[in-house]
């Protein structure tokens, strides 16, 4: 009887460890209107029984995305992206070449806004969705949903969504 119980525990443990932390953002790109509210969705699963820490991070575009919308993208960026189809001149650059800041963090029921976002209607709802009350021009960019659990270190702990704010 004890051997059977030990085997079930071992099987359960191995199954939980094999899956690990999985973070997914269902919409990879979202277009929203200036001064309107939006929700950036983030789902995660974990084998941990301890509460997760949710963090949303903002990264600005590497180049101005509005120029492309108006047909004024640079010929250098166009030629580079044609040579490497995986590379996006607006999204793929070093963090040192763009603005990176924490939007909000949630641990348990406590939500903390990053310095730049204090005073704005921003919160984390459900398990990990970022809700922004009124979009501003500077909100266009990449948003990363990052999940941290103390005892589930395997798997994919982040995913991103591109938000483009239009008038």
**Average of the residue pLDDT scores:** 83
Low-confidence stretches: 8-18, 77-81
Number of domains: 2
CATH homologous superfamily name of the largest domain? Answer: Immunoglobulins
The share of residues in helices is 10-25%
- CATH architecture of the largest domain, by name, is Sandwich
How much strand?
35-45%
Order of helices and strands: HEEEEEHHEEEEEEE
**Distance linking N and C termini:** 68 Å
Please give the CATH class of the largest domain: Mainly Beta
Biggest sheet, in brief?
6 strands, mixed
Keywords: Signal
Protein name: Immunoglobulin like domain containing receptor 2
Signal peptide: 1-20
Domain Immunoglobulin: 27-166
Summary tags:
167 residues; alpha+beta; Immunoglobulin-like; 6-stranded mixed sheet; 3-stranded mixed sheet; 3 helices; 12 strands; 19% helix; 37% strand
Structure in words:
With 167 residues, the protein is an alpha+beta fold. It folds into two domains: 18-60 and 99-166, Sandwich (Immunoglobulin-like), CATH 2.60.40; 64-98, no CATH class. It contains three helices and twelve strands, in the order αβββββααβββββββ. The chain has helices at 2-19, 65-69, 75-83; strands at 21-24, 29-33, 38-40, 43-45, 53-59, 100-107, 110-113, 122-125, 129-132, 141-148, 155-156, 158-166. The strands form three sheets. A six-stranded mixed sheet has the order 2-12-10-5-6-7, with no helix packed on it. Strands 4-1-11 form a three-stranded mixed sheet, with no helix packed on it. It has a three-stranded antiparallel sheet with strand order 3-9-8, with no helix packed on it. The longest helix is centred in the first third of the chain and has 18 residues, at 2-19. It is globular and about 65 Å long.
């Amino acid at each position: 009887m004890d051997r059977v119980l030990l085997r079930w525990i071992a099987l359960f443990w191995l199954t939980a460890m094999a899956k690990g932390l999985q973070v997914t953002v269902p919409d990879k790109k979202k277009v929203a209107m200036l001064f309107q509210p939006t929700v950036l969705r983030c789902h995660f699963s974990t084998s941990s029984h301890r509460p997760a820490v949710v963090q949303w991070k903002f990264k600005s575009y590497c180049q101005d995305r509005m120029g492309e919308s108006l047909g004024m993208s640079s010929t250098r960026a166009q030629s580079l992206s044609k040579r490497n189809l995986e590379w996006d001149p607006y999204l793929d650059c070093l963090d040192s070449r763009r603005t990176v800041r924490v939007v909000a963090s949630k641990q348990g029921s406590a939500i903390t806004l990053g310095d730049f976002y204090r005073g704005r209607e921003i919160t984390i709802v459900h398990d990990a969705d970022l809700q922004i009350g009124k979009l501003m021009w500077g909100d266009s960019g990449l948003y990363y949903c990052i999940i941290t659990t103390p005892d589930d270190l395997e798997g994919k702990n982040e995913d991103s969504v591109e938000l483009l704010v239009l008038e």
